[in-house]
Amino acid sequence: MRATIFEAPGKVTVVDKPVPIPGPGEIRLKTAATALCASDVRVYRGEKYAKPGVTPGHELAGVVDMIGEGVTGISEGDRVVICPMVTCGKCRYCIVGRQNRCEQRKTMGYDLDGGFAEHVLIPADIVRVGHVLPVPKDLPLDLAAITEPTACTLSSIELLGVRAGTSLAIMGAGPMGLLHVLLARAVGAGVIIVSEPVAERREIAKRWGADIVIDPTTQDAVAITKDATGGDGADAVALTIGSHAAVIPSFDLVRKQGTINLFAGFPPKQTVPFDPNFLHYNEVILTGSQNATTDQYRRTIQMMKHVAHIDEVVTNRYDVEHGPQAYESRLSMSGLKSLVQFPGVE
Question: What is the pLDDT of residues 165-186, one digit of tens each?
Answer without folding.
Answer: 999 999 999 999 999 999 999 9
